Amino acid sequence: MLLKDKLKKRIKEISIVSFDIFDTLLFRPYAKPIDLFQHMEKFFHKPLFCEQRIKAEQSARQSHPDLVDITYDMIYDEIETEYKEMQAKEKAWEKMVLRANPELLDVYKYAQEQGKKIVIASDMYLPSEFIAEILQKNGFNNWDKLYVSGEINAIKGNGSMFKQIISDFGVLPQQILHIGDNKKSDYKIPLKMQIKAIHYSSIYKQYCRANKCNFSLKHESKTSLGLSIIYSMMAYKWLLDKMQQKTSYNYWQRLGYQYSGPIGYGYTRFVTQTAQENNIDSLLFVARDGYLLEKIFKEFSTDIKHNYIYAPRFLNHICRLDYCNDKEAKTVIEYYAQENEEIKTLSKNMSNPSMFIEEHKQIFKDLSERQMQYYKQYIQRIVPTAKKYACVDTITGQFSSQKIIQQGLSAPILGIYWGICEDMFINTYQHKSFVGLCTTQDDRREKNYFTKNWNFIEFLITSPEHPIKNLDKDGNPIYENINNAYEIKRSELYPFIENGALDFTKDVNAWFKGADIHLTSQDIINWVNAYIEYPQKEDIKQMQNIKIAEDASHQIWIPLFGIKTKLIDFIKSPHKTVKVMKSMQWRTLFQSFLLCIGKPVSLRIHGMKKITMILCPYLKNKYMSMVFEMGKNWKYKVIIGKDK
């Protein structure tokens, strides 16, 4: 039975229904109320507003010890002069972000249909006229009485407001049902007074419980404005889906909403801010990773022109003869051998591709210049003339896209990237990075730069197109002919992911009227890492069908997170199956069980005095740990489950 149905059942038994307001009837999109002040501080460029607003409220309470609650005017009487103007803005912001709790709106209307008297009771400093306006705006109408503690000098927290309700309506306490989110003032206090009460857990808390949100991420949402808003928006979306019982979203649309949307929104906000700071008037989103980013960028109201363009690394090789090793040099030779008989003949006996190009430099130079001319015609045709250009991509190590675009436009451009993997060209090309410079292999593996699975990020924000290998003379992409079930599957699924991501962006803009929600790169990384570390059963099931190409030629395909395993595979080839399962980031309970059979024990031996025995080391969690010590130096440990 849904919670709203349980509430309706209780409503039938009484004559008066009393509702709390904030976090009950109305929902704020923040993990904690003061995040609203923090958001205003950033939007209105009022440093320390949040801190001063909190202090002013504390000071107002100290200045009026004779009152059980204070008013909104009292708070702003105490605030510093430079923040007085925020009084009207705070009310406007509350009106903008507060939304009806759809679950309790349904219950509220049911109570009215049943002819029950409706009471709305809140321990709140905001004026009752303003609260009434917000309630009506969100569909709550025709109540019988509205109680606001700041105006009546009575609060739920000590029972005085409930006494006034009983007195005003002339009823027995048992005839009243109160619904609210505060465990003490909305539940324990009314129960002590023999009023029937239901503790309504806030939407945010319900979402965290239902989705098993990990503790570390919940803690981050308490200190990060971006995560506070993301968590809250996801909670509200979750409740809407729950209310519908059968959501109109499939798994991939939800994935797009929950992850592609925040990734694209946060990074694209950085792109927009960087472009504005550098007076960029034309942004070039580079295929394929720029596909979704450009679509999200369109949702922002800016005057910056933008295009989606092709600049694959392979084109940089053949147009500029810009290769770094023999493997890349060989692809250049193979490409030009198809259209030049002399190269085709001479290359049959070559042993060193890089040296071969040097030996026949003039031939390759003539061919590459002609190819570069084609690219110039393409890019100058689709990109409008601008004073300052910037290209947008995700990861770069050699600035290959930026190089060819810059030469194609015959103008310097700024490169905007999620991250930069090497510093070879750092001083050569203008650039800005969302997460910073990552120069070592350890940095590249570091989850705080590129998440615990960068392939997942690329899967979420890439294009439904197949990879391109070249452009024709008219500038149309020539796609690689990849007749692979996994690439076809990805292309089929991506439109759903894209729709979810764009819905998220539209919801952010609708909720906050275009105001930035300040989602930092670290917020996004923490958000994505939580999905990777704590997958739900449905995540594991759906991702078993997803593989991505490990190599540029799309010959080697690896699981994005995990694959299905059959018992017959384990029986026929246990060593091979165990090896595959060990490499998987996600495993089902069945796969973990098979691994425990394949490798039931792991030992770590540091001499005879220190030995650790790990039983079932491939289980997801650590279930037990026992330490046996003999004297100061002898230490033996037994662990059941994952050690780290």
Which value, in Å, is the CA radius of gyration?
31 Å
First-residue to last-residue Cα separation: 40 Å
The fraction of residues assigned to DSSP E strands is: 5-15%
| Strands ordered across the widest β-sheet | 5-4-1-6-7
Count of runs of 4 or more consecutive helical residues: 30
Name the poorly predicted regions.
none
Helix-and-strand structural type: alpha/beta
- DSSP strand count: 22
Helicity, in percent?
A: 40-55%
**What is the overall pLDDT average?**
88
Largest sheet: 5 strands, parallel
Broad shape: globular
Describe the structure.
The chain has 644 residues and is an alpha/beta fold. It is 50% helix and 15% strand. The chain contains 30 helices and 22 strands. A five-stranded parallel sheet has the order 5-4-1-6-7, with helices on both faces. Strand 4, helix 7 and strand 5 form a beta-alpha-beta unit. Helix 2 packs across helix 3, helix 3 packs across helix 4 and helix 16 crosses helix 21. The two termini are 40 Å apart. The model has no long low-confidence stretch (mean pLDDT 88).
